[in-house]
Structures are given as structure tokens and as C-alpha cells.
Amino acid sequence: MNARIAVRSAGAAWLSMALATLVGCAQPDKSGVQEFVKTTQKTTPLKKLDPPPTIKPYEPFTYTAQGIKDPFVLAPFAQEEELGVTGEVVAQSPNYKGPQPDPNRVREELEKYSLGSLKMMGTFRMGGGGELWALVLAPDKVVHRVQKNNYLGTNHGKIVGITEQRVELKEIVPDGPGRWQEREAFLSLTQ
To answer: Which of 3, 99, 149, 178 could be a cystine partner for 93, CB 3.0 to 4.6 Å?
Structure first.
């Protein structure tokens, strides 16, 4: 008897699973959704899309810089030959009595950097109460110590004074062919 009850209950379980599957496969009522789509299509105005933008064809450009300064060539005032360091430009004006760089002076290490690329890092005194020296950081990340009468920058900048806050310079810059002019410059302590 127990076996019959087990077979009947197993058959009932299969029957209920089959009915549940058939109910799940039945067509649901889609009339509400279909009505919504029809109403929306009727009430929504049709808007035409904007035409796509016109794409201009690529036109190659040939760069011809005839008569224009080449951006990759140093300007004459930045070239050492033009600055009169070799003595050629200075020789063109033998009667010139103004300031001019010494063509025979050996250039110092910090003269190969522009003044704007150098940074004053601080000062110190040698031997306790001696003359004030400055510490200058070069673009190659090397710190140099300088004192009065050393040279800095590309414009023959001679150090004329050092204070706790700045290094004062006299530069000699070109002022026409074979002519020079002195100007004051300085390097301030960076914060």
C-alpha cells in the first residue's frame, strides 16, 4: 500500500509540474502594451534627423619658409660668434670705447646656462666671518658655489654683489654691430 501511495504522489508531482510548465508557456495578455505603442506612435510627432556634417577632404600643406626666419636656427644675438667673443665683430669698430666682453677670458661653467634657468638656493660664509658666497642650482641639478667676480649666464654676467636674498650682476649685451651695453641683472633666492 505504501508503494501505491508513493507512485501516486510521484505521478501527481509530475502532473503538477507539467501543468505549471504549460501555464508558463501560455500567451500572456499583451493588449495593454500594444495599445500603449499605438497611442505613442500616433501622438509623437516625427522629427527628421539633421543631415550629417559635411567632411572636407584632407588638403596637404607644403611649408615653404622662403624669406622667413628658420625657427631651428639660433638668432644672431644668441650665437657666440656674433657676440664678439672671438674678437671679429669688435674689430669692425676699432674706435668704440664702450663696454665689451673680454674675448680672451676663459668662460666659467655657469655661463653655458641662461640666467633664467639658474636658481639661487642660499648663501654661506667661508671661514666664519669671510666674504658671502651664493649657492646656485644649474639645470643639470648640480649646485655651484659662486662669489663676487664670478660669471653667470650667457650674457657675460659678472657678479658684483651677493646679499642674503640675491646675486647682483652686470651683464654685457650686444647693442648693434660691434657695440655693447651694460645692464644690471639679478638672481633672487627661490622660496
So the answer is: 178
Q: How many structural domains is the chain composed of?
A: 1
Asked if residue 84 belongs to a domain, the reply is yes
Nearest C-alpha neighbor of 173 from the set 105, 46, 62, 85:
85
Chain segment 119-154, per-residue pLDDT in tens: 999 888 877 677 889 999 999 999 999 999 999 999
Q: Kindly give the pairing relationship between strand 166-174 and strand 157-162.
A: antiparallel
HEC-encoded secondary structure of 97-150: CCCCCCCCCCCCHHHHCCHHHCEEEEEEECCCCCCEEEEEECCCCCEEEECCCC
C-alpha triplet 33, 35, 39: angle, nearest 5°:
120
CATH of the domain at 96: 2.30.30.830
How many residues are there in the chain? 191
Q: What is the pLDDT of residues 93-102, one digit of tens each?
A: 566 677 888 8
Q: Give the domain extent around 165.
A: 76-188
